[in-house]
Specification:
globular; about 25% helix; 9-stranded mixed sheet; alpha/beta; Rossmann fold
Amino acid sequence: MKKEFWLERWEREEIGFHQSEINPYLCRYWHELNAAKNSKVFVPLCGKSRDLLWLQQLGHQVLGVELSALAVQAFFKENGYTPHRTTAEKFDCCAADNIRILCGDFFDLSKADLADVGAVYDRASLIALPLEMRARYAKHLANILPPETKILLITFDYPQAEMPGPPFAVSVGEVEELYRGYANVKLLAQLDVLPQQPRFRERGLSSLRENIFLLNMH
């Protein structure tokens, strides 16, 4: 899956993956990370998610990375911010009120970019990537995060043959395999959500679960 796919989705406003409300599992399970109030939280492939605001309102410094400049601009505009803008070699940065978003490619991030991160919230990254990219994603994330960082990870799981992604199906077993050697993986909850997701029923799914994980990086 190439960068152009996601850039075109934002240009055409085909953003069914965007949630206008705060993710309920973020609210329900964030405490499992025991993240210090003023710690920095990294949100990969953040889009214009309002979850950034929820984390900021808890007292966290929030750092997102997002490929689409349209998404970054929309986040700050829709939430009433006029961000401070800076440009570096790999990323353009927009920042306001303890929220910074790096506009660029996740795979260009370095250890220096995430040096002071204490926690990660991943609702939209792993499930956005096809199978062949997910191992690369997990390896890169593990390589650039500080040791002992905790991750709240949310995935969809469904019969992949019934629907082309994204979002892609990512099973409990795959998460355990992806992060084997990088993290301790704990399944916090597995929920049947098809009744609450009519757009996925309409696409022909016979089952749909959301899995919520706590990952403790080594």
